[in-house]
Amino acid sequence: MKFRALAAASLGLLVFTVAGCAADTSNPDDETASDDIESLGEALATQLTVPSGDVTLKVTTYGGSAGASTLILINGGPGLSDDYMTTIKNLASSRVRVVTYDQRGMAPSTKPKTSGYGLSRQVADLEAIRNRLNVPTLHVLGHSWGGAVALAYAGAHPGRVASLALIDNMPPTFAQTGAGHERAGARIESLQASGRIPKKVPDNVGDDCSPGMRAVLPAYFHNPWFPIPASLSKRCSASVSGATVEAITNYDLTKELKPLTMPTLILFGGDDLFGLQWQQQTAAALPRTAPTRVTLPGCGHYPWVECPKTFYPALRDFYHRRTTLKL
Predict the structure, then answer these.
(1) Is the peptide bond before 51 cis (omega within 30 degrees of 0)?
(2) What is the pLDDT of residues 259-273, one digit of tens each?
(3) Domains held by the chain: number
(4) pLDDT for the residue 233
(5) Which residue range(s) make up the domain with 311?
(6) pLDDT tens digit string along 37-73?
(7) Which of 14, 16, 134, 262 is the most exposed place for a label (fewest CB within 10 A)?
(8) What are phi and psi of 105, to 5 degrees?
(9) Beta-carbon count within 10 A of 319 CB
């Protein structure tokens, strides 16, 4: 299945070794699934609106007292909301402020009038958020497509990135991304042949691509019968996804990444449908960071959902050993 055909089949979405990781069968919607996760009530959430060029971004912060470090989460997609990273936001505490945001075009953030959806605009949005938060540096965590945004931001503003955590991230080049989508297409087709995914993926309902996304999500898990939380397909915009895919065609971040030196984690589920080649390619593009590479066996593209009891310790270990961020 060719890249653009796969993009259509999987809604245009670019969401597109620690030993002993067994797939976790606890309720993935339970935000206390891991004993290490402190539940924060929604009362501690603060909503901000941040202008960035011709868009206004909806930003939410959790926790953090005076002097707290700032950890910003960049969700995948493109064309998804920040809802699906619900559990990770509970890393917030008095010491750590966690920040999420809906990317440009995803309501309640506004659509660009003329500036578009390219990586340079995504980078400008992150820098606008950092300025609004009035912090000198960010600990940046990006998942899937959000990993490509994180890489682009680190390349453009290396002095503003205290650490870089890449979770099942899109790789440094568009060509590598396309090859990963070929691998993902084969997995989707295999699950269609077995009956787990319908042979005809449901059509969008207007701009809403969540019906089709729900249909193909089993391919994103090591165990295709894993109980998938509703938050993973809560909001999905076909127009934002399509416009962003078109805007990033032929991107290549290798030149910007080579000189980077910040502490870096590259964590992948061992059975990510896009293949561990993405992890290897990312590590090769970041030689001076001496990246910490973690592969979690028995996990797919959403390791904090499928394997929370090994994902969170691995994340904390990186931050404790290589950064000043204390979760």
Answers:
(1) no
(2) 999 999 999 999 999
(3) 1
(4) 87
(5) 3-30+118-322
(6) 344 444 478 999 999 999 999 999 999 988 899 999 9
(7) 134
(8) 95, -20
(9) 22
160, 44, 310, 22: CA torsion to nearest 10: -130
Q: From CA 327, how far away is CA 319, in angstroms rounded? A: 8
Q: Which two tokens stand for residue 161?
A: 């990135």
Q: How far is CA 191 from CA 9, 11, 18, 200, in A?
A: 13, 17, 27, 12
- Strands 55-62 and 96-102: what pairing? antiparallel
Q: List pLDDT tens digits, range 79-125.
A: 999 999 878 988 999 999 999 999 999 999 999 999 999 999 999 99
User: DSSP states of 261-296 as a string?
Assistant: -S-EEEEEETT-TT-THHHHHHHHH-GGG--EEEEE
Question: Residue 30 has what pLDDT?
Answer: 39
- Whether 95 maps to a domain, the answer reads no
Residues 294 and 307: beta-carbon distance below 8 Å: no
Residue 34, φ and ψ in degrees, nearest 5: -100, 130
Q: State residue 300's pLDDT score.
A: 98
The per-residue pLDDT for range 296-317, each reduced to its tens digit, is 999 999 999 999 999 999 999 9
Gap between the terminal Cα atoms of the chain:
42
Contact of 10 with 187, CB cutoff 8 Å: no
Name the E strands within 144-253: 161-167
68 lies in a domain?
Answer: no
Asked if the structure places residue 65 within a domain, the reply is: no
Q: What is the residue whose two structure tokens read 């290897």? A: 280
Give the count of alpha carbons within 13 A of 173, CB side only: 13
In this predicted model, which residue has the larger pLDDT, 196 or 38?
A: 196
Which 8-state DSSP code applies to residue 37? P
**Domain annotation covers residue 279:** yes
Domain holding 17: CATH number? 3.40.50.1820
